[in-house]
Records
---
Amino acid sequence: MEPGTQTDSRKQRDKKHCMRIVCPHCGNDHDFIEVADEVVITTRYIQHPDCSFSQAGDESHVMGDISFFCGECNADITQFHPRFLEMLF
Ligand SMILES: [Zn+2]
C-alpha cells in the first residue's frame, strides 16, 4: 500500500467517528460530568534515605457503575458514555 493511500483512509475514519455528543435536554455540547461508583485508588510511594516520601505512581480501578451527566442541566446521558470513551484520549 502506498503511504499516501494510508493517510487518506485515516482521515476518512477520523471524520466518520467525529460525532459530537449533545445533551438532548439543553443542547450543551461542551461540558460533561462522569461519576464513578466504588473507585479503589492505589498509590505507590518510595521512601528516601532522608525518610521523606515521594509518589511513584497511582492507579484507579472502578468497581461500581459509571454514570455520565450533562454539565449544564445534570441530565443523565449515560447512554452516550460508550461514545465518550471512544473519543477520550
Ligand atoms: Zn443538558
---
Amino acid sequence: MKYKQLLASLLIGGAILTAGVNVHASSIDDQIKQNQTQLTQVKQQEQSLTAQLQAVMNKITENKTKEENFSKALLKEKLDYQALKDRISALTKRYEKKKQSIEAISNPTTYLAETNKIIDLKDQINNLKAILPKYEPQIASFEVSVAYYQQQRLASENQRNQLATQLQQVSQQDASLQSTLQKLDQQKAEAEKQQAKQAQTQATGFASPLATNLVVSSGFGQREDPNGVSGTQHDGIDLVGQLDQSVFAARDGKVVMTGTDKSAGNYIIIQHDNGFYSYYLHLNHILVKTNDSVLVGQEIGKMGTTGNSTGVHLHFGLAHTANWKEFVDPAPYLKIS
Ligand SMILES: [Zn+2]
C-alpha cells in the first residue's frame, strides 16, 4: 500500500526534525523540501482515495436502487401469485358446492343450466391453473436478482469502509506533515536569524573611506611625530588625498562623537555593529552629527589638514572603543597589504 510507505517516510522525516535543533537554514530547507514532496504525495493520495470513495458510493446507491426495484417486483409477483391461488381456491370451493347441490335438483331445465355453470367453472379453474406455473420461475429469477444486488451492495459497502479508513489515515498524515512543515518553517526562521547575527558579528569588512585609490603615506604603528605631540605610536593610517575631497563612512553605523581637537583636528567617530569604531581625523568639514545613523559609502566629511597635521590627508583609525584606545591596524580591513 502506497500510504504505508508514505507513513514510513513521514516517520523518518519526523526523526530528522527532532534531531534538527540548531542546524543551518539550508539543511532545514532540505527537510522542508522533503516534507513538501511528501505532502504533495499525500494530497494526491487523498484526492485519489476521495475519487475512489465517491465511485464506490455511487455504485452502492446504484446497487441499492436495483435491489429495491427487484424487491418490489418480487413482492408484487408473490402477491399476484397468492391472489391467483386464492382465486383458484375460491372457484374450486364454489365448484365443489355446486357439484354437490346439483344432485338435489329435480327440474331438468335448472339441472341443465347448473350443469353448464359447473362446466364453465371447471374451465375457469383450469385456465387459471394453467397460468400458475408461469409465476414460479419469475419469482425465482427475481429472488436471484435481489440476492445478487444485495451481495454487490455489501461488497461495495465493505470497500467503502476500507477506503474511508485509508482516507482517514492519509488525512492524519496530511495534518501531521503540515504541522511538521510549520515547525520547520519556524526553525528555519530562527536559524536564519542566528545566521544573520553571526554574519554581522563575524564579518569585519570595511569599505574604503575614499573614492580614490588608497595611498598610505604613514602606516599603523610608525613614529608619526618625532616631536611627541601626537604620541610616539601611530594609531591609524594616513591616506593621501585632496583638500575637500569627500570622506565616506567605511561601514554602516552610528556617529558617536564629532568634535575638534588640538591634535586630531576635526574628527568623527562612528560605531559599527561588528565591535569596531572607525575614526576620521584632520577633516576640513564635518557633515554629520552625533547620533546620526550613517550608511557605508555615505559622505560624512571633507578631507583637510586641521589639528596636528603637516599637509592634507585623512587619518583613518579603527579601534574597539570610542575612547581613543585599543586601536588596530586598519590596513588589512581596507584590503591594503
Ligand atoms: Zn595619522
